[in-house]
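Predicting holo structure, 3,4-dihydroxyphenylalanine bound.
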Amino acid sequence: MAIVDDLKTIEEEAAAGIAGAADLAQLDQIRVAVTGKKGSLTSVLRGMGQLSKEERPVVGKLANEVRGRVEAALEARKAELAALELEAKIAADAVDVTLPGRRPAVGHQHLIKEIMQEAEDFFTGLGYVVEDGPYVDTTYYNFTALNAPEDHPSRSARDTFYVVDPSKDDNELLEAGHNTDRLGISELLLRTQTSGVQVHHMEAHKPPIYMICPGTVFRPDTADANHLPQFNQIEGLVVDEGITFGDLKGTLDAFTKAMFGEERATRYRPHFFPFTEPSCEVDVSCGVCHGEGCSFCKHTGWLEILGAGMVDPNVLENCGIDSERYTGFAFGIGAERVAALRYDLPDLRMLVTGDMRFLEQF
Ligand code: DAH
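Done. Tokens:
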């Protein structure tokens, strides 16, 4: 009987298709193609009308058996595929808890900021206040009140950035290095030192004064291994009754030991600054050779770290402080210089060019 053969073929093809179905969607396509309304099995059953009375129950029974087996096979494969798909989804979503974690990049303070902060911590620990000052200041605060004579070379446009009024046409003279005070071109400048903050502070506060000012300063220097046109200083000022050079030495020696280590010594060399008398430069003993002499300290055993001195009475008087009653000391520390000495930096430009390989070391 042709119809029996057809049923056999349909069952065999359905079985192969079901076994080979790769996912639930493919399996459903097979279900529709075999047992669906227009499916192959359904259309065979429709053709039963042409069969004889005797054949009909035999073929009908067989067809129902085939339908039953195909549907069972569909169900079984469906359960299998659903389990496989669930497994795949779980595997895709899985977190491998044994993988090493990814460390997020965390920024940190720049080395110079850190040194300034350390200096601040040291001096605030001694009871000093931290003062701020303007980057753009006047010749009065940066030079005149600090006892710098009118013809002091540091006032020239070669050593100071003036904030020039473009409506004035004396710029050529200024560029040629003429003294701006006398030209009357500009009273405004980018501060070349934090020392002017001493004056601002003394105008606003009466002694006793214990003050530091960490801050940026500017000079028309070309950047090279030892110079930057913009760098940082930590200014210090003490004004009180009975302050002596001994206080200056004791304070700066303790500061040096805090910044460089207990074993480091200081020495005081006579120097000149307009705003202090007497003035000195302070050296710290070389950390490489401990004073023996080596290439790091150019065989002197000492490294220069800061300038200091007893506040000139003229400066006190300029700020309305009685220089008969009060004395004081002041100092100026270069933050980049401290960094260079502490970490043996071959070139100050490394501090400002933003190379992470360098910066991440601190
Ligand atoms: N202002 C000086 C400079 O820029 C540093 C300095 C020296 C500051 C002596 C002081 C001081 O207060 O007493 O080189």
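DSSP finds 13 helices and nine strands in the chain.
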